[in-house]
């Protein structure tokens, strides 16, 4: 029987993030040699990477970083996914995710492909992903990256479960005047999940499709043909209130819209991004 203790198992689990049975099997195979066991865990993980390609990585976390630049601020947000919540709250996984975020900030990557190719830990982010996936034994994915540049950038991270890392992240870019209400706007975005910033930012094809659907629905209800334009326009306003940030009733004061709250600050929201893990 291999000579190792429960302390050896605990130390190797903390070092790798691997499951208890995987650690015990590796220690047995390595006859108690922790360095050899670590190599066994890594090699087995690398061999099984292709088998995990089809698995869903719907757990994970969201991280943000805001830094100053010459003409304002830049906010960077990444979503990093694992298969289970158990891994998502693992210290090794969180440390890895922090390195991914740092690489995103340092490289100036504009999308996930650029981020995966960016340098990190003496290799690339892609190499880091493969390395931690091999050790932990789950599919690990860097799924999303966003950058918001504005005179002022505000972030908000929300924990859906207090035992897990943040599951929802928001970046809001504003001018300096609206920075005073940006935090409340970020909280609103986290809760109300708007799709678009303004009516003007809704793609024309989306508006046309929604309007056509509402026209057909209204006509099928038997409404007078002459009244259709006004009824449809009213229903389009409802669509905007549901999906457009500036049209939504403000979370802290539903009698006012987000746009009215921002206007009262004499400022403007110029951009926002919302991530929710797995969505």
UniProtKB/TrEMBL annotation:
<dbReference type="Pfam" id="PF00889">
    <property type="entry name" value="EF_TS"/>
</dbReference>
<feature type="region of interest" description="Involved in Mg(2+) ion dislocation from EF-Tu">
    <location>
        <begin position="84"/>
        <end position="87"/>
    </location>
</feature>
<comment type="function">
    <text>Associates with the EF-Tu.GDP complex and induces the exchange of GDP to GTP. It remains bound to the aminoacyl-tRNA.EF-Tu.GTP complex up to the GTP hydrolysis stage on the ribosome.</text>
</comment>
<dbReference type="InterPro" id="IPR009060">
    <property type="entry name" value="UBA-like_sf"/>
</dbReference>
<dbReference type="GO" id="GO:0003746">
    <property type="term" value="F:translation elongation factor activity"/>
</dbReference>
<dbReference type="InterPro" id="IPR014039">
    <property type="entry name" value="Transl_elong_EFTs/EF1B_dimer"/>
</dbReference>
<protein>
    <recommendedName>
        <fullName>Elongation factor Ts</fullName>
    </recommendedName>
</protein>
<dbReference type="GO" id="GO:0005737">
    <property type="term" value="C:cytoplasm"/>
</dbReference>
<dbReference type="InterPro" id="IPR018101">
    <property type="entry name" value="Transl_elong_Ts_CS"/>
</dbReference>
<dbReference type="InterPro" id="IPR036402">
    <property type="entry name" value="EF-Ts_dimer_sf"/>
</dbReference>
<dbReference type="InterPro" id="IPR001816">
    <property type="entry name" value="Transl_elong_EFTs/EF1B"/>
</dbReference>
<keyword id="KW-0251">Elongation factor</keyword>
<feature type="domain" description="Translation elongation factor EFTs/EF1B dimerisation">
    <location>
        <begin position="75"/>
        <end position="278"/>
    </location>
</feature>
<keyword id="KW-0648">Protein biosynthesis</keyword>
<comment type="similarity">
    <text>Belongs to the EF-Ts family.</text>
</comment>
<keyword id="KW-0963">Cytoplasm</keyword>
């Amino acid at each position: 029987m291999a000579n190792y203790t429960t302390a050896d198992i605990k130390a190797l689990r903390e070092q790798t993030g691997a499951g208890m049975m995987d650690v015990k099997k590796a220690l047995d195979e390595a006859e108690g040699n922790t360095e050899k066991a670590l190599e066994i865990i890594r090699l087995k993980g690398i061999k099984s990477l292709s088998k995990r390609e089809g698995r869903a990585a719907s757990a994970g976390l969201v991280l943000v970083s805001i830094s100053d630049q010459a003409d304002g601020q830049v906010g960077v947000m990444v979503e990093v996914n694992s298969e289970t919540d158990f891994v998502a709250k693992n210290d090794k996984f969180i440390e890895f995710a922090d390195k991914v975020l740092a690489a995103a900030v340092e490289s100036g990557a504009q999308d996930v492909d650029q981020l995966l190719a960016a340098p990190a830990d003496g290799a690339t982010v892609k190499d880091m992903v493969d390395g931690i996936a091999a050790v932990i034994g789950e599919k690990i994915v860097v799924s999303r990256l966003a950058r918001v540049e504005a005179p002022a950038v505000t972030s908000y991270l929300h924990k859906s479960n207090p035992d897990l890392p943040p599951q929802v992240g928001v970046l809001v870019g504003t001018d300096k005047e609206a920075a005073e209400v940006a935090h409340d706007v970020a909280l609103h975005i986290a809760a109300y999940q708007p799709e678009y910033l303004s009516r003007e930012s809704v793609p024309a094809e989306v508006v046309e499709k929604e309007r056509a659907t509402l026209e057909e629905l209204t006509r099928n209800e038997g409404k007078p043909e002459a009244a259709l334009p006004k009824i449809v326009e009213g229903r389009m306003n409802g669509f905007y209130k549901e999906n457009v940030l500036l049209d939504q009733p403000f979370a802290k004061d539903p009698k006012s819209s987000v746009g009215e709250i921002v206007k009262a600050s004499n400022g403007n929201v110029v951009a926002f991004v919302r991530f929710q893990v797995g969505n």
